[in-house]
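Changelog-adjacent note: as of this version, every example in the card shows the full chain rather than a window. The one below runs 126 residues end to end.
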Amino acid sequence: MRIYVASKFENKEEVRHAYKLFREAKHQITFDWTQEDASSKLGQERISYLKECADRDFCGVVSADCFVLIAHPGMKGAYVELGIALKTLIQICIVGDREIVDNIFFHMPNIRFYATIEQCVSALST
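Full-length structure tokens:
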């Protein structure tokens, strides 16, 4: 299965752990955004780089069979990616405590919740 994993940028170590588990379960990651880093770029170079990043992220979501959101307080871009996934009508998995991060769109019929990434990987691998 082709999978895109979203979360808050500062949560990239947990996302990398998820990538490892999904790959071990023979899934494919559509795009690894955890390698992106705009911190050294300024001005027009930064703007161009961020546009390229957004394009790659967008393509990663729309080419996925399943969108996995690792919930984290303070997410921004991940919610945009969730919106893209909702539009494509693919399977969506939310990982984490629903009480901490809630969103009206979490009630859509194609969304499933898992307490841990391990539970999500297991469910998608059966």
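Structural remarks: The longest strand covers residues 2-6.
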